[in-house]
């Protein structure tokens, strides 16, 4: 609920569409209804593979290997009843595509993102031009901190693990040789116009289905979305192996897709630098040592132009350092929006803001 609360507090009045578990409580439903949120509930169910598998992977009509509730094991080992040919981590792109198609009046800028570790500090699109079919760029992917050693590049295992597991070390090198030293692009948040984001969601969904047919080594938990997200973008810009990509149908993200350097644009992904700050036992006043800037009065994250970063992703990696600014932001948002919420839906700011 925190991301929804902060989002409305920024003055954003557009659609908020949220995928939730079917067992969401009545109180939470009432609260989100007061925030004018569209909910899509999804039950977990058996995963259906296009090929009968041998061994411990997905089997025709069977549940994925891991189905523990919560965390990576859940999203990488469980399917939705409605989208049962991809695990949740992959199927969420197909889900988002379906929700976007259903929203006929969603015509402006849009953000598809993880929710648990995302917070809105100001209106996410206020710095962007009006979205039209001719807007350029029409799709934005966001670079994490770069270069090493403070930041990291695509030599990191998370960027290449899926490709190596699926295609082998030789082909991994061939695919990634031209972009392994380039910035990591976080798959947890992507901004686009209706045209740009639709193109992205179609490309991601299609690539996951293609990988599904290649065998168990191309399925979660051996594969995840981060390398696919980057593979599509860097191929689109001429960095990946042409022969391998032609086998998968070209460069689907389009010429109007761009990557936004860390500290610029609508989203700032702080996970890498926050983790380093936590490890070094830094404080709000010393976060500049890891190239993070915060506003002196509020402790909220700043982009490199000195303005508040509209959206902050992976803030939970900074929990020990950033807990108070986050709690203060959430409390201000709750107090401002409380008149919209019917009595009994949510009692107080502590309940809404618990755990970040």
Describe the model.
- Helices cover 36% and strands 14% of the residues.
- About 8% of the residues have low confidence.
- The chain has a four-stranded mixed beta sheet with strand order 5-8-7-9, covered by helices on one side. It has a three-stranded mixed beta sheet with strand order 6-13-10.
- It is built from twelve helices and 13 strands.
- The chain is globular, with a radius of gyration of 20 Å.
- Strand 1, helix 2 and strand 2 form a beta-alpha-beta unit.
- 39% of the residues are buried.
- The longest helix has 19 residues.
- By secondary structure, it is an alpha/beta fold.
- It has one domain.
Gyration radius (Cα, Å) is 20 Å
In the sheet with the most strands, the strands line up as: 5-8-7-9
Structural category is alpha/beta
Poorly predicted runs: 51-71, 239-244
Would you tell me the overall average pLDDT? 84
Largest sheet: 4 strands, mixed
Assign an overall shape: globular
The domain tally reads 1
Q: How many beta-strand runs?
A: 13
Proportion in β-strands: 5-15%
Structural features:
single chain; 356 residues; four-stranded mixed β-sheet; three-stranded mixed β-sheet; 12 helices; globular
Set down the secondary structure blueprint:
Blueprint lengths: L1 H8 L6 E6 L4 H9 L2 E6 L1 E2 L25 H7 L1 E2 L7 H15 L7 E4 L4 E3 L18 E5 L13 H11 L1 H8 L8 E8 L1 H19 L12 H12 L5 H5 L10 E4 L6 E3 L1 H9 L13 E2 L6 E2 L8 E3 L5 H19 L11 H5 L3
